Known about the structure:
Elements: E1 2-4, H1 6-14, E2 18-22, E3 25-27, H2 29-37, E4 41-45, E5 52-57, H3 64-76, E6 85-90, H4 93-110, E7 114-118, H5 135-140, E8 145-148, H6 151-156, H7 161-173, E9 177-182, H8 186-190, H9 194-205, E10 217-221, H10 235-252, H11 255-260, E11 263-266, H12 274-278, E12 285-288, H13 295-302
Parallel strand pairs: 1-3, 2-4, 5-6, 5-12, 6-7, 7-8, 8-9, 9-10, 10-11, 11-12
Helix pairs in contact: 1-2, 3-4, 3-13, 7-9, 9-10
The protein binds 1,3-dihydroxyacetonephosphate.
1,3-dihydroxyacetonephosphate binds near residues 57, 222, 288, 290 and 291.
Amino acid sequence: MKIIDYVDILSALRKNKKIFIDGDVIITPLAKEAAKRHNIEIIKKEKKMRKEIIAGNWKMNNCLNESVELAKGIIDGIKELPDKRIVVLCPPFTSLYSVSQLVSQARDERKIQIFSGAQNMYFEDKGAFTGEISADMILSCGGSFVIIGHSERRKIFNETDDLINKKVKKAISKGLIAIVCVGETLEERENSKEFFVVKRQLKQGLKELDLNEITKVVIAYEPVWAIGTGRTATPDIAQKMHEFIRKQILEIFNSEVASEIPILYGGSVKASNIKGLMAEKDIDGVLVGGASLKPDEFLKIIFYEK
Length: 306
Ligand code: 13P
C-alpha cells in the first residue's frame, strides 16, 4: 500500500501539479489539506487506461510468401478488436513492406488497431554499414514499431546497453515506437541478480530520454530462461518484475510516465497462459515468439478472455 504524504505534494508542486496514483493508496490528512491548498490534482489511474499490446515477433522465420500467408491468416481472423487492444506484427525485414501493406489495409477497412514493426535497426541514418537497416528504411516500408535490445541480439550479436540506448533514441527521433526488451538470464536469476540486471538495462537503455521521448517507448520484460523454452514465468513472478520496472520508470522519469508506459511480458506465451498473465495489474500485453507463427494460436492470444 502506497502512502501519499506532504513530501509528495511538495514534489508535485515543483513539477506539473498532478499526482497519479495506481492501486491502493493512503493519503495523509496533511497531504490532503496541502493538495487542496496548492490545487494539486490527485488522479487515480487504472490499468484499464493503458493500451493492451499483443505483439508477434516472428524472429528469423518465414520467406516472403509465408509471411504474407501468415499475416493474411491473422488479419482474416480479426473483424474487430476489443477497445484499447493493439496488435503488432514484426516479420523479418524482407517481409516488412508486404506485411505493412496488409495491416494498413486492415486498419483502413476495419478500423482496427493493427500495425507492423521491425525486429531491429541501426542507429546511424545511412552510410557504410553493410547489412544494417535504418529507422527511415523501416518507416518507408510502413513499419510503426521496432523491437530493440531483444535478448537474442544482446547475446548472439553482442549488443550492449549503450548501443541499445543509441538505437532507442534514433528510433524515437524518427517517429517509431521502440519496444525495448529487458530481462535476466537463468544464471542471473539463480544468483538473485534479476532486479539488479533489469535495473541496469532500463537505466542505461533509456539514458537521456526526455519526458516526451519516453512516451514513445514500450517495455518488454522477457526473462531469457523463459524464451523458447516452454517455461513461462508464472503470473506472480512476471508481475513482481513488472511492478519493479514501473517503479524504476517512476524513479527515472515520474509517476505519470510510470503509470502510462505499457509493459509487455514475453517468454513462452501461449493461448493457455495468456489469461493468467493479463490478469496481473502491471502486465499490459505480451510479446509472443513461437506462438505468433500459428494463426489459430495467435488469434486465441489476441482474443483472450478476461
Ligand atoms: P517465445 O514466445 O517463442 O518464447 O519467444 C519470446 C520472444 O522472444 C518474443 O520476443
